Amino acid sequence: MGISFEILQKDIAARNGRLKVGDKTIRTPALLPVVNPHLPLVTPREMQEMGVEAIITNAYIFSKSSEYRDRALAEGLHKVLDFDGVIMTDSGSFQLMVYGEVEITNTETITFQQEIGSDIIVPLDIPTTPDNPREQVEEELEVTLDRIKEAREFLGPDAPLAGPVQGATFPDLREYAARRVQEIGFDFCPVGAVVPLMENYRYKDLVDVVLAAKRGLSPSTCVHLFGAGHPSMLALGAAMGCDIFDSAAYALFAKDGRYLTTYGSLKIDELSELACPCAVCRNHTAEELKKSPERERLLALHNLYVTLAEIARIRQAITDGTLWELLDIRCRSHPRLLEGYREFLRHAEELERQDRVSKRRFFYQGTESCRRTEVIRYHEMIERFTVGEKVLVSMTGDKMEEYDDVLSFKPPFGPFPTGLAETFPIGQSEVPAWDEAMMEAGCRGIARLAETHPESTVTVLAPADWAAFVRQALPGVEVLE
């Protein structure tokens, strides 16, 4: 049976792929809506009709339910939930995080999950919450790793088992945990205990945690970001290299009267318009939705539609090579998301090794664009330029015959020979009027040219209104105007 993952397309660290679980296949990135059998605002069958290929439910709830335990054991999880796609089951770790204890052992929960026909089984890991002391985190992490190893040995090497990666907010422990889990043997690894980070808008910490876990995992491992499901942050999650998301947000926010959008959560009672093309919003006015006896259910449907649409939008962006542009837009919807985005950009050199070489386009969207992987990769490529002894970098487009080579200039990349004018990223980039951030990045490209070609003398021909700026940015280079 087992789990396998095939990567089809890449952008930044994101992947469009196929996750195969037994004889079932789902497209990734994918959202697994959380299903509580006792409170189904949207049924699994309805979800499947909306395009959902996989769901997640809680095996611990089933094991303790007088209504569902015997049915699940007798009929199987898929029949009880009326869903024939992939069903992943949580072991009870969520309850362990919330209540501090559960009345089930590791072997009991993995045995129960297997008996009810779960497609992806999760061991009873300890979800150490953020800000616990390191000694406690280390102790609980070792217990988790022992349980993961126990589950693998108990169910065998081909069992469809997930290997959770814990370690709280200590990046070195997350990386260590990921390496250990990988050594035990897993193709599917959830990054756990991150819900408190997202609930408190600690996206900077989330970036550090996820990227640390990714460093310890094989590039071919399918990565699940446990509890992530707000549409505003899914692009960031995908860009970090997460392939699977799950969340009960669509239902929980509906119960609280919250209307999800890609730029945040709104209170339905404060809306006068429903600016969304989903079936719910096109068939109801804001006033009708507020007063509907099915208000919670309709809000849940809208929330799920919006989230699924964002997943599809992310997959298309990966195909088009425009995930940076989508990410830039989404992360400006909240100051803490922007903080997370800037932390993500701090890892651009690391991400550059995973990003694709050529894309359809590069849209300049401000200061953050200067730190993108395409700019870093281009600056590294400058070393390979072949130039003569006297080199002119012309920012004005003018040429001067006394130079051996005349290079053109395009910020934020910097100098380029004519032969690269139609190639990515020079030819496929759209930049507005020059600003200081892009010019500073472009000057770094010129500095890179001078540094990697010490046998050449580099001169810059700058527009009069930029000459002083360029001189300050390139103190060792002659600047003409």
TrEMBL record:
InterPro entries: ArchSynthase1/Queuine_TRR, TGT-like_sf, TgtA, tRNA_ribo_trans-like. Keywords: Glycosyltransferase, Metal-binding, Transferase, tRNA processing, Zinc. It catalyses: guanosine(15) in tRNA + 7-cyano-7-carbaguanine = 7-cyano-7-carbaguanosine(15) in tRNA + guanine. Gene3D superfamilies: Queuine tRNA-ribosyltransferase-like (3.20.20.105). Its EC number is 2.4.2.48. Binds 1 zinc ion per subunit. Its cofactor is Zn(2+). One of its GO terms (molecular function) is pentosyltransferase activity. Residues 13-335 form the tRNA-guanine(15) transglycosylase-like domain. Zn(2+) binds at residues 276, 278, 281. GO terms for biological process: tRNA wobble guanine modification. One of its GO terms (cellular component) is cytoplasm. The active site is at residue 90. It comes from the Archaea. Pathway: tRNA modification; archaeosine-tRNA biosynthesis. Substrate binds at residues 125, 193. NCBIfam families: arcsn_tRNA_tgt, tgt_general. Exchanges the guanine residue with 7-cyano-7-deazaguanine (preQ0) at position 15 in the dihydrouridine loop (D-loop) of archaeal tRNAs. Belongs to the archaeosine tRNA-ribosyltransferase family. This is tRNA-guanine(15) transglycosylase.
